[in-house]
Amino acid sequence: MASLKLRRAVNTMLKDFIGLYKDESVLIISDEIRFDLGRTFFDLAKKICEDVFYLEIKAKDNYTYEPPDIVKESMRAVDVVINASEMNFFDTHALYEVSKLGVRVGLVPNINEESFLRCLGIDQEKITQSSEKIKDILAKASSIRVETRMGTNLVIPINDRDIITTTGLLKKIGDTGFVPSGKVFLAPEHQKMNGILNIDGSIEGIGLIKKPFKIEIENGLIKNIIGDSAEANEFKKLLNKTNDDGKTIGEFGIGTNYKAILSGEYYEDEITTGTAYIGIGRNIHIGGRIDVPFRVGCVFNKPNIFIDDELVFHNGKFISN
Q1: Of 167, 144, 178, 107, nearest in space to 277 by CA
Q2: How far apart are the first and last CA of the chain?
Q3: 130: which of 61, 148, 163, 276 lies 20 to 30 Å off by Cα?
């Protein structure tokens, strides 16, 4: 049974972040692993809306990248979808298609209860303002340069790229995203990123990095992995599962959630203030052209970020006026 704190957090998410209306239809998707969380969403959504449906899918070690047809059809039939299962719908064709139909989709990240409660307990206006300010700066820029004391030196061309913010607010028709959230991200110009990245935060599917290692990026493609630590070898195994498109940098992002911490819960790591990340692989629905069933994120700490040669982040701290 869900704790009182979790029930309160779910209620806050439904009312303040998603903004459910009484006359909306809602679909809750869950699985046996996150059964308590899914049923909590279902029970509390029923107190707000007349038409609430619960769909439980079988948890699997390895999902196909797209949800099953029965799930996709069910998503099209409602006003709001909340995915509380372990299956990640983000950057899938299914999510993009239902968003175009006007369906709002809230994705509950696969993080533990403590992380969920902490990251949701934010000043929403504060995160929205900082995220939008960063977005405005990036929207006028043509390039990003990222440096760290640990050896990162990346040049990222971003001419005419879509800049995306996700703050957890999903109140407009067709809004989709994670809740809780807090980041600004984009798809860089295809195959134009160059430099060295030192990974010292975490890697999706691996966890916190105890022994940092470097990757060499040439024309957007990972050309070399420098290091023989356990994490470096695990990373090599991950990349061996895909082709060159899957080894191409498809995303760059900056965390803006000041309640998030580097914890090894990958989604929380990616939204943590003071960090930045790259996403390797799929970016077709964020303005890119890579359409492969593979995406791995890599978080790094305390970057100096120059936007059109102006220092905007110093050791991970936003310093622009």
Answers
A1: 144
A2: 47
A3: 148
